[in-house]
Specification:
- Strands 8-11-10-9-12-13 form a 6-stranded parallel beta sheet, with helices on both faces.
- The relative contact order is 0.08.
- Helices cover 35% and strands 21% of the residues.
- The protein is an alpha/beta fold and 448 residues long.
- It contains 14 helices and 16 strands.
- Strand 9, helix 6 and strand 10 form a beta-alpha-beta unit.
- The longest helix has 16 residues.
- It folds into 3 domains: 154 residues, Alpha-Beta Plaits, CATH 3.30.70.560; 172 residues, HUPs (Rossmann fold, 3-Layer(aba) Sandwich), CATH 3.40.50.620; 95 residues, Pantoate-beta-alanine ligase, C-terminal domain (Pantoate--beta-alanine Ligase, Chain: A,domain 2).
Length: 448
């Protein structure tokens, strides 16, 4: 008995019935046992004239037949399933069965070539094969099906549009397929209005993860009364183009009702850390952040989630949540991306008018003074804060909300920068726009 793998496709008539009819014929033929069949999936036609989408699948067989005999039975199955000759190469067809692998044999005759000569470049073949046998080796290249599929996806990552998913069931289906194929997921959670800061996270994910998934979701539960939920900037069409350009595989952009049912009443809270600093001014903000991230982690099952250091307090809460709840996600925090004058990139920077924008780099200048004084030997937090306050006072329209130097892990206020270093956290308003920024003293500025 030899183990063989075949690909099946149909794009005319009742496609699912056609494929099942072909499989029934194979099962009833002598000397063939159908071991397992992949799920059916709809795919875009490759090559040939304009035609309807295909339904594709793969099947694992055990057979006593020679490869040539098996091919004959497969061609009979195509005819029984309704295939009619058209004379058009790669044209539409009721049923198409291809012998992809026949044990570890390599065959090259006028009638049959095995392994199938084009299967390594066909996602509609590799994806269902990976459902069945991701570790199966191609006898020609020596690579596993998983490796061949991953290589194909990487080759095409710069050419394919990012896939837009807007519902939870569709996202679950995609993630289930990804996990079955043993691909790793890198998640970049965003509220949209993508900028270079987000793109830096996407590029990092592209280097280390098989699949890159970006969420675009303006999360209502992290906005308090009177905050800017209704006017938060959104640009989904532009975000999709940007995501495609940097190689994102999937953009998840659900409506609010898809993530929160009307009777939603469950929240995740990191007690203590959520009431400090930004949490004091926005008492329900971090509860909304940790709740939506828990939902996204559950849905996407990422190996790594990527965040920017600009939201430093948020990253501390997220790491604590992941540790406490054993969520199994590595949290990667990358450097804050800034404008040429030092202003940290933020979607809310769009709110600033020209005069406010001119003053906005004052936050960065204040943090830079703290870094310089620390490097010169200053360890008194009061002295460092005074130096920063003097810089901030030179921006007449800036209204500080808080300026603190805290332990980098616990966020507790410090009087002296100790050996373990410190985080400098700063927030305030220019007009109606709330800005935050931070720097680390005596601590590595980010984790790649």
């Amino acid at each position: 008995m030899v183990t063989a793998y075949i690909g099946l496709g149909s794009n005319l008539g009742d496609r699912e019935r056609n494929l099942k009819c072909a499989l029934d014929h194979l099962a009833q033929a002598g000397g063939i046992e159908i071991v397992t069949v992949s799920s059916f999936r709809e795919t875009v036609p490759v090559g040939g004239p304009s035609q309807p989408p295909y339904l594709n699948a793969a099947a694992e067989l055990r057979t006593e037949l020679s490869a040539e005999e098996l091919l004959t039975v497969m061609q009979d199955a195509e005819r029984i399933a309704g295939r009619r000759p058209t004379g058009v190469r790669w044209g539409p067809r009721e049923a198409d069965l291809d012998l992809i692998l026949y044990g570890d044999a390599t065959i090259d005759t006028e009638r049959l070539v095995v392994p199938h000569p084009r299967f390594r470049d066909r996602a509609f073949v590799l994806e269902p094969l990976a459902d069945l046998a991701p570790e199966l080796e191609d006898p020609v290249s020596g690579r596993t099906i998983h490796e061949l599929l991953l290589e194909l996806m990487r080759r095409r990552s710069g050419k394919r549009n990012a896939r837009l998913i807007e519902t939870v069931p569709e996202l679950r289906e995609y993630v289930d397929m990804t996990v079955r194929n043993r691909f790793t997921v890198g998640l970049i959670p965003t509220m949209g209005c993508l900028h270079e800061g987000h793109l830096s996270l996407i590029r990092a994910a592209r280097k280390t993860c098989d699949k890159v998934l970006v969420s675009l979701f303006v999360n209502p539960t992290q906005f308090g009364p009177g905050e800017d939920l209704e006017r938060y900037p959104m640009q989904q069409e532009k975000d999709l183009r940007m995501a495609t350009e940097v190689g994102v595989d999937v953009v998840f952009a659900p409506p609010a009702g898809e993530m929160y049912a009307e009777d939603h009443c469950t929240f995740v809270t990191v007690m203590g850390l959520d009431s400090l600093h930004c949490g004091a001014a926005r008492p329900t903000h971090f509860r909304g952040v940790t709740t939506i991230l828990t939902k996204l982690f559950n849905l996407t099952r990422p190996r790594v989630a990527f965040f920017g250091q600009k939201d430093y307090q948020q990253t501390v809460l997220i790491r604590k949540m992941v540790d406490d709840l054993d969520q199994g996600v590595r949290i990667a925090v990358l450097p804050t991306v800034r404008e040429a004058d030092g202003l940290a990139l933020s979607s809310r920077n769009l709110y600033l008018d020209a005069g406010e924008r001119d003053q906005a780099p004052v936050l960065y200048r204040a943090l830079t003074i703290a870094e310089e004084r620390f490097e010169a030997g200053e360890r008194s937090c009061a002295m460092l804060i005074d130096a920063m306050g003097e810089v901030l006072s030179k921006a007449p329209d800036f209204e500080p909300e808080y300026l603190v130097i805290v332990h980098p892990d616990t966020l507790a206020p410090m009087t002296t920068v100790a050996e373990e270093g410190a985080a400098v956290l700063l927030a305030g308003r220019l007009g109606k726009t709330r800005l935050i920024d931070n720097t680390l003293l005596g601590v590595t500025q980010c984790e790649d």
